[in-house]
Amino acid sequence: MRQNESEAHRLVSALANRGIDARVEGGGVHWQVDISPVAERALRVHCFGYDRVISGLMLGMNPGNSRSSLGPADVPREGPEFYVTIQNGESTIASGRTGDRAEVITCAVAWLSGVSAAALEEKAPFVNERRRAMQAIACRLDERLQWEIGGDPSFELWVYGGNDRAACAMTHAVSS
């Protein structure tokens, strides 16, 4: 059984221990957990697993050449990752990524118990974490500039000035 499939089954088991109905769906490398709705509220969790061997195959400059490095070396991600989408009816309200199964369970319990989206971000800080990081950057911009933040997964920040000029800023400062 692959790591992502086994993580999906572990998550369903942990949710069942908390009285939450969920089921595993998927095949191959695509595994997800659908958490049954309470009223209109539901969650979908995509389960990923990163092995050091596979994730170590990174593209880019040769790390053996110290002059080619423009900053600290990237450390490949290893272990589980959960991409959670929080839904109200057919609408996705929020999303986030975490490597901690306990955070996913806390999020599910809170959302299904009826907390607001703002309160959910407090109980499960990984929810909308990247969006909040980009909003914090945008709030420091000159008031004369217009800006907008894109959607998941990158939440890129587009800043517009006069004369039809635009710039895109993306940050990796928020790590999951």
Task: Kindly summarize this structure in a few lines.
This protein has 5 helices and 8 strands. It is of the alpha+beta class.
Topology of this structure?
Elements: H1 3-17, E1 22-27, E2 30-38, E3 41-50, H2 52-55, E4 79-88, E5 91-98, H3 101-112, H4 117-123, H5 129-138, E6 146-149, E7 157-160, E8 166-169
Antiparallel strand pairs: 1-2, 2-3, 3-4, 4-5, 6-7, 7-8
Could you explain the architecture of this structure?
This protein is of the alpha+beta class and 176 residues long. It is built from five helices and eight strands; from the N terminus they run αβββαββαααβββ. The strands form two sheets. The chain has a five-stranded antiparallel beta sheet. It has a three-stranded antiparallel beta sheet with strand order 6-7-8, covered by helices on one side.
